[in-house]
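// run 5 | inverse folding | seed 20
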């Protein structure tokens, strides 16, 4: 059985200190692929190089909505970086009114640039939204994000918001939050999202699922979230593993499935041949 961690930050401390061990442990826990998500352009070269040097690891390019001090990245630069063979998505991008406050026009302008770049390179968006669901969805709608699609990552909103995102063609990705005792509304969402539109993620090193809540998260733990969702839905683990894995490759169609974690062939040649 294979499972994909659709959103993690293995370049962040403490995971970044021993990425080989993190990937090995992920492989031992059925994780075949993972997407290491960019949060700013300073660290993007590291994200890209982790993907370049490890089969089964993919990268995104983008600047997180809470990276307020980051100099603005142009659409052209995003497009240029997104053309790298290992970069399969644009983000994470979106709106976060929880951790940023004041006049947030800069955040909305940044979001628009990311949608524009994603549209031009025809790559899916990785959307981060917190305390800003209405604005996030209306901007996705106004800027035709449905043309390229993407994922609402680390989803923690109600069913109404999920429904609107699904209507825009987006996928819903569940993190360890769904395993937390207090997340009643989210558990309900996890039972309602169509199986063919669901992803799982760790968002590691944050948000470790039960039974590791409060500890450093890592991609290997994504299986606990998948197991929890299988139980919630009364579905088999096999179904959840294979559906979320198929969904990942349906959405991120630039990602090549044949190279998995722990395979030793040189990835540089993999990037040059084929599509
Ligand atoms: Zn996020
Ligand atoms: Zn993230």
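// decoded
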């Amino acid at each position: 059985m294979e499972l994909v961690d659709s959103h993690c930050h293995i370049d962040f401390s403490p995971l970044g200190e021993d990425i080989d061990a993190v990937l090995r442990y992920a492989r031992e826990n059925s994780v075949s692929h993972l997407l290491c998500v960019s949060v700013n352009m300073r660290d993007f070269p590291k994200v890209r190089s982790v993907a370049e040097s490890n089969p089964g690891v993919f990268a995104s390019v983008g600047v997180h909505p809470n990276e307020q001090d980051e100099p603005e990245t142009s659409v052209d630069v995003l497009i240029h970086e997104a053309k790298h063979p290992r970069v399969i998505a644009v983000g994470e991008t979106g709106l976060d009114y929880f951790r940023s406050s004041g006049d947030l026009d800069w955040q909305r302008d940044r979001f628009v640039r990311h949608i524009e770049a994603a549209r031009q390179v025809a790559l899916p968006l990785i959307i981060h939204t917190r305390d800003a669901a209405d604005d996030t969805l209306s901007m996705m709608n106004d800027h035709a994000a449905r043309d390229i699609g993407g994922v609402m990552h680390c989803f923690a909103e109600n069913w109404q918001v999920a429904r609107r995102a699904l209507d825009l063609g987006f996928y819903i990705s569940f993190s360890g939050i769904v395993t937390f005792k207090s997340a009643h509304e989210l558990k309900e969402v996890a039972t309602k999202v169509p199986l063919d539109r669901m992803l799982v993620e760790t968002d590691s090193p944050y948000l470790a699922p039960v039974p590791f809540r409060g500890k450093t998260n890592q991609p290997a733990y994504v299986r606990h979230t998948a197991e929890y969702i299988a139980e919630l839905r009364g579905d088999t683990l096999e179904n959840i593993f294979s559906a979320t894995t198929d969904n990942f490759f349906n959405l991120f169609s630039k990602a090549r499935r044949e190279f998995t974690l722990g395979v030793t062939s040189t990835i540089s040649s993999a990037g040059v041949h084929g599509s």
